[in-house]
Predict the 3D structure of the following.
Amino acid sequence: MKKPLIASLILLSSTLFLFGCGAKNPDTPTVNIESIPESAAKEESSEEATDTSANKDLPPEEGMVRSRITNEWIDEKINNTRPVAVMIPNSSTASHVGLSKASVLYECNVEGSMTRLMGIFEDWENMPKLGNIRSARDYFICWSFEWDAFMIHYGGPFYIEDMIGRDDTQNINLLNDTKGEYFTRDSAKNSTDNVFTSGKQIKEAVSNFGYPLEYRKDYSDPQHYLFAPFNEPNTLDQYDKYISASKIDMSKCYPVTNCYFIYNEETGLYDRYQSLAGSGDGPHIDLENNEQLSFKNVIVQNTYHEIRDQKGYLAYQVHDDTRDGYFFTNGKGIHVTWKKVSDYSATRYYDDNGEEIKLNTGKTMILIVEDGDSFSVDGTSLVAK
């Protein structure tokens, strides 16, 4: 609005009046619009309309809403459909197909210092192929609860039996699918990494098991994350102690996978790389579309853990409110703390001022790190506490 023009018109106008509306102050002076020249009124109106439309966050198509998981525009039906949580191996023999479609991707150590991945997929119904799929661990199952997701896995050690035996656990154990209705074996790098599924097969399993497609009524955290407005991204510049983060190197935490992330200034995303024995060092690629895995948000979550037995099976403390970590986005990072109070509650992340952090629109990578392990950011070592 052109304030000098309005001010002049107010001074020159002889027609001032007062009125009240709702909670407005009745003593507030208002200009009689008839005393404003027509050309000025049109100019004011045009400028105001332009400013308003520029600030509106409008869907690209009718029926689209902001995703509760990524804040990206998606179909409302997809947003109201429960996601799937899929257990995926991360080794030189694994075949990653469809992994780039995961809205959230977890990585955590399992026995033998090997990591396993769990993808949270919200737009899964039309996926032609997804996998390969391997066994679950109970801590991954508990993380899947907070998304009210269908847990998809191929068996697992006896430690998962209590979790999958619960009445509220709605999982699809492909190992029990003796008829092969819900998965397909496909050529892979070895005989164990050959189980794949599809959106059609998952939907058939969900229907046959009588699971509801929509979020269950007692699920309390469907929104999950806080997001910065798309037009006002969280740059982390508001924090005095932010660190520059062009490269996040997790190789000391994950000595077999040796994954790391490099910030791509052109896309504003963190591109994922791995240096696996037998596979060489290079981009982490989805074999379905030849796309590199990339993330807008990267969270390092420090966690207490124990070794359960001589085979090296691990246990992680999933519920806590005293552990710390780091949040990275847009080439910067800050220290955070995290809190998870129950199975189905979301893991919440807070800055050092005690305020819940706002993620940026896009996919999120969650790296679960064992207490005492270190990783590096732009060459500077950070230790999990």
Observations:
- Confidence is low (pLDDT under 50) at residues 1-54.
